[in-house]
Amino acid sequence: MLVAALLGWELIPRTGWLPELFLPSLSNTLAVLVSDWRIYGSALLVTLGEVALSMLIACGGGIALGAIVGGFARMRNLLLPVFSSLYAVPIVILYPVFTAWFGVGSESKIAFAGLYAFFPVMLSTAAGIRTIDPQYLVAARSMGATLQQQLTRVIIPAALPTVFVGLRLGGALAIIGVVVAEMLTAAAGIGYLVTLNRTILDSPRVFAALILILMLSIVYDAMTRSLERRLLVWQPVKRSPAARPGSGLSASVSAA
Amino acid sequence: MQQLANLDGDSRVQAKAIEVSRLSHVYAGIHGEVLALEDISLQVESGKFTVIVGPSGCGKTSLLMMMAGLRSQSSGELLCHGAPMPQPDPNRVGVVFQEASLFPWLTAAQNVEFPLSLRADPKAARRQRALQMLSLVGLDGFADRYPHELSGGMKQRVSIARGLVQDPQVLLMDEPFAALDEQTRMTMGHELLRIWATTSKTVVFITHSLTEAVYLADEVLVMSARPGRIIDRIAIDLPRPRTYEMMASDKFGGLRERIWQQIRSQH
Amino acid sequence: MASARAALLFALLAAWEFLPRSGLMNPELLPPLSEVLTTLWKLLQRSNVHAAIGVTMAEVAVAFLIAIPLGTLLGVLIAEKPYLADIFKPLLFYVFSIPKSVFLPMFILVFGINFAQKVAYAAFTTTFVVIMSAAACVESVKTEYIEVARSCGASRTQLILRVYVPSMLPMLLETIRISMIFNFTAVMIAEMYASRTGIGHLIANWGENFQMPQLFAGIVLLSVIAIFFNESVRWLEERCSNWRT
User: Fold this and answer.
1) Of A2-16, B126-140, C150-164, which has the strongest mean pLDDT?
2) pTM beyond 0.80, yes or no
3) Which helix (H) or strand (E) element contains residue B249?
4) Do A192 and A43 form a contact (C-beta atoms < 8 A)?
5) Model pLDDT for residues C107-149, shown as the tens digit of each residue
6) C166 Cα to chain B: minimum distance (Å)
7) For residues B255 and C52, what is the distance between their CA atoms, to the nearest angstrom?
8) Up-side HSE of residue C226: CA atoms within 13 Å toward CB?
């Protein structure tokens, strides 16, 4: 199927079925990517840097806070409905606030993407913490484990899958947040290149940037999944859940 | 109701309630074709309580589904009161599933009415009949409760009421008490026999519990492991009505042992 | 619990009012709540704001009305035909995880910058969500219910109307709620990115011109609309789910 899509990409514009403006041929796009690799390369670096830093905020904060909120029923009952209601509001509309506060440079992207990814990571971690069977701790205590041992030998390993999900989610959302922010208002980065070239109607360059973005998400996703598989060998292989819309789906998917 | 059944019953009593001839079933599995049932032939007399036991995976549920008209066999013949069952016919055959599977958005009475509502019977008559059935299974006063308000045993009773609502000649039951705890199981078994005595239907009942099998049945059919075949028919000639005390008798134990030996010989 | 949440909300609103006033936060950057609200009130009197709201709401509505039937149809098809499911499900999961804003420039190239482009983009984005949710809805109907209904002699139509629909209803409402969130977000992104009309465009403008009270007023307005719709559907969901355990 993939092969057919790639072939289509090459041939459809060439045969004139769709004008090159709408869909530049694959070869043109790749050619531009190669010839301008320096521009694309440095843009990619900028974007990656922003993603990394916003991940720090989102995952670091999100997982920590998620663990706390998830672990304590009172906090959970208090906060979860609030977040669930807030989820209805598109966070993008806050982006102009960030550009007004932090300017057009990387800081606004990092802050925005950090916020954007923060809540889903927190919610996902909170939900995941709840799945840890309290019986594990009871069993450990009955075997004479000290508090420290309980933490390191039971809680942390049991929490690892949840943490990994949080990392994967956070990274994916950080990428999306950064890219959207760069597309909207920026002076550098891949998203910026997309907008720049779109306004001058240079389609091959636009699509070249788009390919990079796609590659970025796909590679990140594949990397984290294989890392998860490698490190969490003891996890039963889970079928991707027939996504039940609601907590599961909305938390793991971006609206952007 | 009772007399109506008997009037037509004369012509029907001639035909066996269920007659299976040389039935085999093959299905496509992951690694090729699987022979699920092999050359099954059996007959169930009208008004009798027949229990089928067998190891897991032997195909007894599939066989029951075929009797219900929910599945068709690869080869062989299956007749219910002289006619085949190409599709479900709640007038002839009522089914009670392992999971009560009551529709959670309907009340108990609405669940029992469900088959009647499919035929667009008049509302008042439907409700009347549903209440009648609920009374029969001992659930007076629970008509307007929702399933989530009912216990496991109660849900199964509603399920039985639903199976009986169209006064079928045959009632098929697929491990209906499997999800209940032991004590409820015993009570439900006793209740079932009471209902059966009142309505004199033909019952085909699947269970894993040998005690349950001997307690309930007129005849026990033992199936082999896959491919499922009937390897023994054991007549249970304990007097009716059955009582709990009978379970302690030597005869009970002996019958139970005999079934167990048959099943064990499979491994 | 409800009172604790109310207290939390109140505390946050109070903070919004006092932090800028006390000087802890620069009131140029974060206007106090009262100023934002009065600005909002004034804005709502202006006809160009009315026009912008109208445009945005129209885009949201049209995109939604395209995406829901289309997505439901495809979703049901995928759920019903395992053959299609095997081909398309992995594809859909991949498309899902890529930022859909990536496709926005393409829509602009094809349609230009106008109503159609924004609607097309939003409909495109939302359809994917609806497909996944609709498929999940259909799959959620327990096979036991189908078997029971069939054993009671239900025809195919009766199966759909008497078993599938009531069983799926709460989930369908949730689908509508979630898809609307995605839909609204997509329209906002499109308007903020490249548009000459709509609230998103206004917000982007206000941001660029450092008109902070207006910017926050716009944000408050949109948030209220979004939350209102969300909670209304959620309320409906609760009403229809009284039988759910």
Assistant:
1) B126-140
2) no
3) none
4) yes
5) 888 888 889 999 999 999 999 989 988 888 888 888 889 889 9
6) 7
7) 84
8) 27
Superfamily for domain range C35-243: MetI-like (1.10.3720.10)
- Please write the tens of the pLDDT for every residue from A206-250: 888 888 888 888 888 888 888 888 877 666 544 333 333 333 334
Q: SS3 of A194, please?
A: helix
The C-alpha atoms of residue A114 and residue A169 are separated, in whole angstroms, by 12
Do C230 and A172 make contact, defined as CB atoms within 8 angstroms? no
CB contact under 8 A, B114 and C149: yes
Using a CB-CB cut-off of 8 Å, the residues of chain C touching B99 are 144
Q: Does A53 touch chain C (CB under 8 A)?
A: no
Average pLDDT over residues C49-66: 92
d(CA A108, CA C88): 37
The pairing of beta strand B202-206 with beta strand B49-53: parallel
CB-based contacts of A37, cutoff 8 Å, min separation 6 = none
Q: Do C1 and A254 touch (CB under 8 A)?
A: no
Nearest-angstrom CA–CA distance, B232 and B213: 14
- pLDDT (average), residues C212-221: 92
A180–C contact, CB cutoff 8 A:
yes
- The rounded distance, in Å, linking the Cα atoms of C146 and B127 is 23
Do C244 and C170 touch, CB atoms closer than 8 A? Answer: yes
C227 → closest Cβ in A88, A97, A245? A88
How large is the average pLDDT for residues C67-75? 91
State the average pLDDT over residues A106-115: 91
Taking the CA of residue A48 and the nearest CA in chain C, the distance in Å comes to 15
Torsion of CA C46, C52, C57, C58, to 10 degrees: 120
In this complex, which of A90, A94, A213 lies closest to C184 when CB atoms are compared?
Answer: A90
What are the boundaries of each domain within chain C? Answer: 35-243
- The answer to whether A165 and A124 have CB atoms below 8 angstroms apart is yes
Chain A residues close to C135, C-beta within 8 Å: 242
Q: Which helix (H) or strand (E) holds A78?
A: helix A73-86
Measured between beta carbons, which residues in chain C are less than 8 angstroms from residue A95?
Answer: 192, 207
CB B50 within 8 A of CB B119: no
Beta-carbon count within 10 A of B264 CB = 9
DSSP category for residue B247 = G
**Is C231's CB within 8 Å of A85's CB?**
yes
Give the 3-state secondary structure of residue B235.
strand
Distances (CA, A) of A235 to A169, A228, A230, C188: 18, 9, 10, 40
Touching subunits for chain B (3+ Cβ pairs under 8 A):
C
Residue C239, chain B, CB below 8 Å: the answer is: no
Q: Do C152 and B118 touch (CB under 8 A)?
A: yes
pLDDT tens for B200-224 read: 899 999 999 999 999 999 999 999 8
DSSP assignment of A87-133: TTS-GGGGHHHHHHHH-SSHHHHHHHHHHHHHHHHHHHHHHHHHTS-
What is residue C56's predicted lDDT score, i.e. its pLDDT? Answer: 93
Q: Per the CB < 8 Å rule, is C171 touching A221?
A: no
